[in-house]
Amino acid sequence: xxxxxxxxxxxxxxxxxxxxxxxxxxxxxxxxxxxxxxxxxxxxxxxxxxxxxxxxxxxxxxxxxxxxxxxxxxxxxxxxxxxxxxxxxxxxxxxxxxxxxxxxxxxxxxxxxxxxxxxxxxxxxxxxxxxxxxxxxxxxxxxxxxxxxxxxxxxxxxxxxxxxxxxxxxxxxxxxxxxxxxxxxxxxx
Length: 189
Hints:
The longest helix is centred in the middle third of the chain and has 25 residues, at 113-137. The protein has a single domain (2-188), classed as Hypothetical protein af1432 (Orthogonal Bundle), CATH 1.10.3210.10. α2 (26-39) crosses α8 (113-137), α3 packs across α8 and α7 packs parallel to α9 (149-165). It is mainly alpha-helical and 189 residues long. It contains 10 helices and no strands. 68% of the residues lie in helices and 0% in strands.
C-alpha cells in the first residue's frame, strides 16, 4: 500500500514545490511519512501521511482515496485536511484564522489518534522547515506566507498547546514528537 500511495501522491502533486523554494513538494510528503514511521510502523498511517495533502492541493476526492486505499486511510487523510478543502469551491472564502481554528478545535476535542499522529507528523515537518529557513533568512522568510509572522505564531503555538494537552493519550514515541514540535515552535517564535 505504501508504494501505491507514493506513486499516487507523486502523480497528484507533480510540478508542485514547497512554498517559496525550488524543493519539490513531494519531499514534504516523504518527511511526513518518515515522522509517522518513527512514531508507529503502521502502514495505513504511513500511507495517510503520504496522501495527507492530496485533497487540499489537487483535484483528488475523499471517495477516490477511500476506494484506492481503504476507509482508515481515507479517514486519517480527511481528518488531517483543513475543512475548507472539503467544501465546494464557492465555500472556500472563510478567513484564514477561521480556517485554522477548525483543525485546532478538531485536534483538541475530537480527532482520533490516527489523525493526531498524521497531523503531528505534518505540522512537525512544516515547523522544522520554517525553523531551518528562518535560521538562513531571518524575518525575510515571512514574505513567503500569505499571513504575518504573528499569525503564524498564533497558529503554531495553538497547535503546540493542543498536542501537549493530548499527550496523556499518546504513546511515549508520539509524545516525544509532540515535545520536538513544541521546541521547534519556541525556537521560531
